[in-house]
Amino acid sequence: MTVAIGLAVLPAAVGLLRYESRHDDPALPPSLFRIRAFAAACATVAFQNLAMYGTLLALPVALAGASVQSGIALAAFSGGSIILAPVGGRAADRYGPRVPTLAGALLLGIGLLPLAITAGQLPLELLALTLAFAGVGLALTFPSMRLAAVEVVPERYAALASGVFSTSRYFGGMLGSIAIAVVLSATPSIESLRALFWIFTLAAFGAAVPSLALPGAQRAGPREAAISEQVAP
């Protein structure tokens, strides 16, 4: 049932885009995704949230319900991203969205790699350390991606772009939840947990690919007239 619901998302999305493309005043202009950097920001955040939320949900299962250990590990994961988020914002201002997002995606993937190798069976100290490292990657990426998603579209689409970007985040989290439901549908085992953490690790590294299409250090806000034709309904 879960797989069927997940598969239904694709034709529903195609149907929505076809409907919107024929509408005189679409709520979501499909041509908005022809702006390369905007599409890249949405794809990158979807991959990253798949990795992040999937890890947040799967880790307590891997730790067999050890609530104290789970709390410490997840606090390390979240703490790094919260504390260092301003650093990610400054890096985006200085270097443009591409560099910090690419670096953050790679750091997230490297931080999750030990979980994939060991199926999450790490000593608590090492687990907290590797998740804190992954959290640094998250701190570098989120400000940069949101900046890119809003800045590369015409001003009149800024609010819409922010909403679509947020929806892409939730979509990635939904895919992570579906992966957990499918892989752990039977009794969880070391092999199934290892497969699950590999999915999340590869998703983190996968986020590095679309991040290459984000603006670099010399970015400038798009001129309204120059991009209007790209996003016209």
Description:
It contains ten helices and no strands. The chain is an all-alpha fold and 233 residues long. The model is unreliable at 219-233 (pLDDT under 50). Helix content is 77%, strand content 0%. It is globular. Helix 7 (158-183) runs antiparallel to helix 8.
Keywords:
mainly alpha, disordered C terminus, 10 helices, about 230 residues
List the topology elements.
Layout: H1 2-22, H2 36-62, H3 67-83, H4 85-95, H5 98-118, H6 124-151, H7 158-183, H8 190-206, H9 208-211, H10 224-231
Query: Low-confidence parts lasting 5 or more residues at pLDDT below 50?
Result: 219-233
End-to-end distance, in Å? 36 Å
Secondary-structure element pattern, one letter each: HHHHHHHHHH
Summarize the amount of helix as a percent range. over 70%
What fraction strand? under 5%
User: What oligomeric state do the depicted chains represent?
Assistant: single chain
The main sheet comes to: none
Q: Helix tally?
A: 10
How many runs of DSSP E, i.e. beta strands?
0
Shape by Cα distribution: globular
Report the average pLDDT across residues: 82
Q: Structural class given helices, strands, pairing?
A: mainly alpha
